[in-house]
Amino acid sequence: MKTMGFTQKIILGLLLLVGLVGAAQANVGGPAWDKAPNKTNDMGALQNGAKLFVNYCLNCHSAAFMRYNRLTDIGLTEQQIKDNLMVTNAKVGDTMIAAIDPQQAKAWFGVNPPDLTVIARSRAGAGGSGADYLYTYMRSFYKDEAKPTGWNNLVFPNVAMPHVLWQLQGERRPIYEEIKEHGEVTQVFKGWEQLKPGSMTAQQYDEAMGDLVSYLQWMGEPSQNTRVRIGIWVLLFLGVFSIVAWRLNAAYWKDIK
After folding, report:
1. 174, 186 in Cβ contact below 8 A?
2. pLDDT of residue 7
3. Residue of 40, 114, 121, 50 lying closest to 80 (CA atoms)
4. pTM to 2 decimals?
């Protein structure tokens, strides 16, 4: 019988750890990730998402690998970018750097807010894509006076980030149902109760978050739609070429038995 090597033991241990973490998260009874709408081909949605990103996210979070002038790819002119999306003295060719001082951010929140350039590509998991995670996360804040910021999040418990969009969404609280299984009582998330209305209805807020997340998707890979279009044409070419090659091969060998 072959014994398990050291490397195999390490891999098995990591797999068990991942399983235990997943089980622990499941016991919390948080929400499953909702499917994010895919609007990366919708220029209007991407422009609205860029506006939300600049107005609500860029104050604390940078997008250090994205330049303002790249927003021309979603249908904006450089003048529109300057007039509507640039609130600092940055130039249109500069990268999107947060206005907040990193040392102040760390003092206020305990950590520096992460860069969001590829956030939609880095948050994929067993629950779905990175876009699904962000879409659910931005719709899962609730009031929690026990936290320093006054807010908490079901998808990211004890998150340091406050709910910067609360004026749009309003204030909500999660509703749980207690379920008893095998002698243990667990709380399962069932929905939300609106405590105070925001400036948007629930449907409008969800649509706005869909626009924001679609912009974050696009920002993580601005050339993805072009890559997909080229890929389709390449596959069509290969399909036609395969048929031509097949018929040429048949014609070449038809007299050879």
Report:
1. no
2. 52
3. 50
4. 0.78
